[in-house]
Specification:
One of its GO terms (cellular component) is endoplasmic reticulum membrane. This protein has helices at 2-20, 26-36, 41-73, 78-217. By secondary structure, the chain is mainly alpha-helical. Helix 1 packs parallel to helix 4 (78-217) and helix 3 runs antiparallel to helix 4.
Length: 218
């Protein structure tokens, strides 16, 4: 039994070293422990641990009995010394077995928590990166839209300036046409006055001719 306990303890120490340091077998050990903790695995582990704990208590009880016998007899028996050493070694190995098993279980638990937290942190980082990338893309889209709007604004300003020039030219043409029409109106009035004068002169000539012809006839 002592050889078996030594083998188990050294195996547990090897498991602890595998869990502590990074190596190719670490993932395999963690996956194996996760499978052990599923289904009936925890029941088997608890049964083994309870059995080992009972054997440990039995060894401790045997050591206490031997100690009481020494006190009652007042002498030390060589056989009891051998039994005492054997029970002490067994109790030490059994206690080490339970302690190392508990250490392995806690280390696996903390490693799993650490992996879960790292995965959650990576997921948060990915979300932050995606959010930042979305913000960058949105900012780029806004900048492109602002650039297009600025170009449209410049085009509209250029069109407005061209239309303004055309309006100014049209106003200048209208003013020139107005002045020209005023000149035509003045010329028309002058010609109309001359026409009236000519008509009055013609009437005067007609009347004088008619008078002269009437005189000749008489």
């Amino acid at each position: 039994m002592i050889q078996l306990l030594f083998t188990v303890i050294f195996s547990e120490m090897a498991f602890i070293l595998v869990l502590i340091f990074k190596n190719p077998f670490r993932k395999l050990v963690i996956m194996g422990m996760e499978r052990v903790k599923r289904g009936q695995g925890p029941i088997v582990v608890k049964t083994v641990g309870g059995t080992v704990f009972i054997v440990l208590m039995s060894s401790v009880y045997s050591m206490v009995k031997i100690q009481k016998r020494w006190i009652e007899e007042g002498a030390v028996n060589p056989t009891d010394q051998i039994l005492m050493a054997k029970h002490l070694l067994e109790a030490t190995l059994l206690g080490s077995f339970l302690f190392l098993g508990l250490m392995i279980d806690r280390m696996h638990h903390y490693i799993r928590e650490l992996q879960i937290r790292r995965k959650s942190m990576e997921a948060v980082k990915k979300q932050n990166r995606a959010f930042e990338d979305g913000k960058v893309e949105e900012i780029k889209a806004f900048e492109e839209e602002m650039t297009s709007l600025r170009s449209k604004l410049k085009q509209l300003e250029a069109d407005l300036e061209e239309k303004r020039k055309e309006v100014n030219a049209s106003e200048a043409n209208a003013v020139a046409l107005k002045k020209q029409s005023e000149g035509f109106l003045l010329e028309y009035n002058r010609l109309l006055g001359e026409n009236q004068n000519l008509r009055s002169q013609l009437k005067a000539l007609d009347s004088s001719l008619s008078r002269s012809s009437s005189k000749k006839n008489t």
